[in-house]
Amino acid sequence: NAGVTQTPKFRILKIGQSMTLQCAQDMNHNYMYWYRQDPGMGLKLIYYSVGAGITDKGEVPNGYNVSRSTTEDFPLRLELAAPSQTSVYFCASSWELAYEQYFGPGTRLTVT
Amino acid sequence: AQTVTQSQPEMSVQEAETVTLSCTYDTSENNYYLFWYKQPPSRQMILVIRQEAYKQQNATENRFSVNFQKAAKSFSLKISDSQLGDTAMYFCAFMVLGGAGNMLTFGGGTRLMVKP
């Protein structure tokens, strides 16, 4: 099993550009999550999904969009990138909501 | 809103010794889940231990154990026989299911350095 994979590992964006962060899991988990981690801080939930076609906002959803068309994939879309979105982004998945979350290796995004 | 506080930004311990990391949380809910996650320099988040609030028995995973004090809203992590590979950021996290929950709320983290 590859677990949770994320692409790209690093990306530099200019202000106003858009991009999609890819996330995939091969564990057949229903639940998937997107977090951001700012320097020296804990993770904050952006969006999560309880299954294909179902998504919900987390703590910091502004400036982001998600979709979940399959169980395996959960892409995160950044529209009109802003410097405040400079962060490390983690995707995770779990079997149930209160169970262990398996994290991807993260994507370091810089917006300049 | 739920909050999680880790009052020790940095700690160090000698190899083979024991160290305890502190975590307190604030909630009005009665049923919830608590976690400790480890983030080594590789950046990969890894679950260390999980505790269900309705269970009075403290969770244990090999050298890792917790001291869960529900009335005090405290959830500390004890690492015994510390190893160099335990060097990492440690995050305490909290989850309530349903309503405004369904999300992990993380503390700010404690950076642990294990010294040879």
Helix and strand composition category of chain A: mainly beta
Q: How much is the radius of gyration of chain A in Å?
A: 13 Å
pLDDT average of chain A, as an integer? 94
Helix content of chain B: under 10%
Structural class of chain B: mainly beta
The residue-averaged pLDDT of chain B reads: 92
User: Which chain pair has the greatest contact?
Assistant: A-B, 22 and 22 residues
Number of helices of chain B: 0
Could you state the oligomeric state of the chains shown?
Answer: heterodimer
Distance between the termini of chain A: 36 Å
Blueprint (SSEs and pairs):
The complex is a heterodimer of chains A (112) and B (116).
Chain A: E1 4-7, E2 10-13, E3 19-25, E4 31-37, E5 43-51, E6 54-57, E7 64-66, E8 76-78, E9 87-94, E10 102-103, E11 107-111
Parallel strand pairs in A: 2-11
Antiparallel strand pairs in A: 1-3, 3-8, 4-5, 4-9, 5-6, 7-8, 9-10, 9-11
Chain B: E1 3-5, E2 10-14, E3 19-21, E4 24-26, E5 33-39, E6 46-52, E7 60-61, E8 64-69, E9 74-79, E10 88-96, E11 103-106, E12 110-115
Which characteristics define this entry?
heterodimer; A: 112 residues; mainly beta; four-stranded antiparallel sheet; 0% helix; globular; B: 116 residues; six-stranded mixed sheet
Task: Describe the fold and architecture.
By secondary structure, chain A is mostly beta strands. Chain A is built from no helices and eleven strands. Chain A has strands at 4-7, 10-13, 19-25, 31-37, 43-51, 54-57, 64-66, 76-78, 87-94, 102-103, 107-111. In chain A, the strands form two sheets. In chain A, strands 2, 4, 5, 6, 9, 10 and 11 form a seven-stranded mixed sheet that branches. In chain A, strand 9 (87-94) and strand 10 form a beta hairpin. Chain B is an all-beta fold. Chain B is built from no helices and twelve strands. The chains are: A mainly beta (112), B mainly beta (116). Chains A and B meet through strand 5 and strand 9 of A and strand 6, strand 10 and strand 11 of B.
